[in-house]
Design brief:
The protein is an alpha+beta fold. The protein is 51% helix and 16% strand. Helix 1 packs antiparallel against helix 6 and helix 2 packs antiparallel against helix 5.
Length: 376
């Protein structure tokens, strides 16, 4: 029997220290709600969890961005709804002014209201804003007029190229295959980088439009029929400028993580409406106004349809992002969050072991006293 080194006490102290560490870890996890509180708890799990957290937080912000986009679109669409109501009234006034039974004095009364309505359309367009962003005064209009290729002209079968939601600050090129009736849009002006391709059905005569990848291409049917349309890269290039881009992804690419769109200029004197200079002071002018206002109503309807399509797309985007947010959050939770049922059982185990270890250590410290019996 030895008293210099109490091995039993050392053993009890070591086990008491281990159970104390396990109890402290269980208490830490229960108080924080996390299984991983430091890299030492699970180095690989921490790395994976941080990546998932970055994705989850990015998805959460992307959802809020898309919701803001819907609010912006609804604001613009609400203003266009009122502008369209004004155009309907203007057309009604033009029809009234075209009546041959009216005198000049009577038409002057109609003109007064007509001109006020023209001014109100412009006022609405110039003041409709979302935050500090003006929406339908042309500030967010997209154009495809920067460095337009030499062959995007009527002589080659092209009437024009317009944007309806293309990627801003991007150069495109177009090819048209008359044999297969296929039009292809290439990104970066290179025929090795296909953006999208669609088949079309060309009418026998006149002009028609094909929309693909946020770009509307106006073509001449006769050029397609004869196969004379020019489709060489470098000569059918154009650069999209302007518009807005809603960040609806978690990456940094403009192709899939950002939704680009443009909002046309909806002032009375804009090219899209062209009703700012109309007059109804004579029957002839009133008849001309009827035709042009009818076209303007169609333009507003087209713009509202585009906004409606964008809103529906963003709603689907939010649904998809929400599903990803939910699933990635669950994955992160399984790795990082504490299992309370398990941790409570570990805490109870640690408490019991602590109590037992303390009692055993006390008993082990009493054992050397039995050596005194040999000295009696």
């Amino acid at each position: 029997m030895r008293i210099n080194t109490n091995v039993n006490s050392l053993n009890a102290q070591r086990n008491l220290q281990v159970s104390g560490y396990d109890l402290a870890k269980a208490l830490e996890r229960l108080s924080s709600g996390k299984r991983i509180n430091r890299a030492g708890d699970d180095a690989a799990g921490l790395a994976i969890g941080q990546k998932l957290q970055a994705q989850v937080r990015g998805l959460g912000q992307a959802i809020r961005n898309a919701q803001d986009g819907i609010s912006m679109i609804q604001t613009a669409e609400g203003a266009l709804d009122e502008s369209q109501s004004i155009l309907q009234r203007m057309r009604e006034l033009a029809v009234q002014a075209a009546n041959g039974s009216l005198s000049s004095d009577e038409r002057s009364k109609i003109t007064a209201e007509f001109q006020n309505l023209q001014q109100e359309i412009t006022r609405i367009a110039q003041t409709t804003q979302f935050g500090d962003t003006y929406l339908i005064n042309g500030n967010l209009a997209q154009t495809a007029g920067s460095a337009v290729g030499a062959n995007l002209v009527s002589a080659q079968g092209f009437l024009g190229v317009r944007t309806v939601g293309a990627i801003a600050a991007t150069t495109y090129s177009i090819t048209v295959d008359a044999t297969t009736s296929t039009i292809t849009l290439f990104r970066s002006g290179s025929n090795s980088n296909i953006q999208t391709s669609v088949q079309f059905s060309a009418p026998s005569s006149g002009s028609f439009s094909v929309t693909l990848g946020g770009v509307q291409v106006d073509l001449i049917a006769s050029a397609i029929a004869t196969g004379s349309i020019f489709a060489s890269t470098g000569n059918t290039t154009f650069t999209v400028t302007g518009g807005a881009a809603m960040m609806i992804g978690t990456g940094a690419t403009q192709t899939y993580d950002a939704l680009s769109f443009g909002l046309a200029n909806m002032t009375a004197g804009s090219a899209g409406l062209a009703v700012g200079s109309l007059q109804v002071d004579t029957a002839s002018n009133a008849n001309d106004a009827i035709t042009k206002i009818t076209a303007a109503i169609g333009s507003v309807s087209s713009e509202r349809a585009k906004l409606g399509a964008l809103q529906n797309r963003m709603e689907h985007t939010i649904n998809n992002l929400s599903i990803s947010f939910e699933n990635l959050s669950a994955s992160q939770s399984r790795i990082v969050d504490a299992d309370f049922a398990l941790e409570v059982s570990m805490m109870v185990r640690g408490q019991i072991l602590q109590q037992a270890g303390t009692s055993v250590a006390a008993q082990a410290n009493q054992l050397p006293q039995s050596v005194l019996a040999l000295l009696r």
